[in-house]
Amino acid sequence: MSHYPPVPGHEVVGKVVEAGSDVTKFRVGDVVGVGLVGCCRNCNPCNTDNEQYCNKKIWTYADVYTYGKPTQGGFSGAMVVDQK
After folding, report:
1. Which pLDDT band holds residue 28 (cuts at 50, 70, 90)?
2. What are the pLDDT digits (tens) for 34-73?
3. What is 47-79 written as a DSSP string?
4. What pTM did the predictor assign?
5. What are the sequence ranges of the domains in the chain?
6. Which of 22, 28, 45, 61 could cysteine-pair with 53, CB 3.0–4.6 Å?
7. φ, ψ for residue 38, nearest 5 deg
8. Is Methyltransferase there in the keyword field (predicted)?
9. Quick check: 5 and 17 in contact, CB under 8 A?
């Protein structure tokens, strides 16, 4: 995501600046919104497009990401997220 001015909150809007080879939903330059940065991908909520109900969800703000770093939401300079 691009370097928009910091905006507090857990839902973030920005531009795609790079996309992996498996990304099919978005292209560089697209404006996107992000509310979660992670989930288990295996439970019933994850498999029915209701990731916000996953017990292992990782919010974009005030949560702890897998590698132990806090998520900073709109205060982040950049984010890496899955296209889902």
Report:
1. very high
2. 888 889 999 999 999 999 899 998 888 888 876 778 888 7
3. HTT-GGG-TT-EESEEEE-TTSPEEEGGG-S--
4. 0.69
5. 12-75
6. 45
7. -170, 160
8. no
9. no
d(CA 8, CA 28): 24
Structure tokens at 50: 């209701």
Backbone phi, then psi, for 75, in 5-degree steps?
-85, -5
Separation between Cα atoms, residue 61 and residue 11, nearest integer Å:
8
Give the C-alpha separation, 75 to 31, whole Å.
17
The structure tokens listed for 70 are 């806090």
Which of 7, 10, 18 has its CA nearest to residue 77? 7
Compute, in degrees rounded to 10, the torsion defined by CA atoms 59, 37, 57, 35: 50
Q: How confident is the model at residue 83 (pLDDT cuts 50, 70, 90)?
A: confident
